[in-house]
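Write out the 3D structure for:
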Amino acid sequence: MARALEGREAASMERRRRRIVGAATELLAERGVEGLSADDVAARAEVSRRTVFNYFHSTEELLIAVGTEMLGDVIDSLTVGDGPAPTGGSAHEALLDDVVTMLGSIDLLGAMIRLTLVLGPMGHQDTRVLAIVRDTVFSVSENLMATARHRHPDVPPLDVELLVSSLLGGLMVLQKHWTERAGLEDSPQTRRLWSELFDRLVLQVRAGFLALG
């Protein structure tokens, strides 16, 4: 009985949390970051202001949750490595190829476009928003690191973290340059541009990372 009650309470809390995050997402789309307030989120989610802060200690923490939700499909797809890890070559080369394949198989660009539309383009954001973007990408990197460590136990954990950090940090740079050149247009041409930038990043990371192995 106690476990059943705990389960129902946990489910209720999760639904309430999702309502709050959903309300914040809607308000961000309507008003932008500067127009977001805890009072408005509470009203839209039909909860009290205190309830909002029971789940999120600050509006910054709530914004990070919104960003993480927006990248949810990406994060979920990175938590499970589909298929066997590649073999052949050195352990470091197999890891690099695996991580690049995982990143290349997801619609990371689409997720970044959605995030940018809500939070604003890189280079035009205040320090608070830049921190939110950074923490959101950190959520992706943590899941990717965990997956990579599990699939490649023969590679030192430090080397796994160095690789993932290099790629995710590079993606932040790519997002900035892609936005400057493509705006936020999602088209075959702008996706080709993203692929070219991504390939360039991989070439540079590959040159340095394989020297570790």
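Residues 71-212 form a domain with the Tetracycline Repressor; domain 2 fold (CATH 1.10.357).
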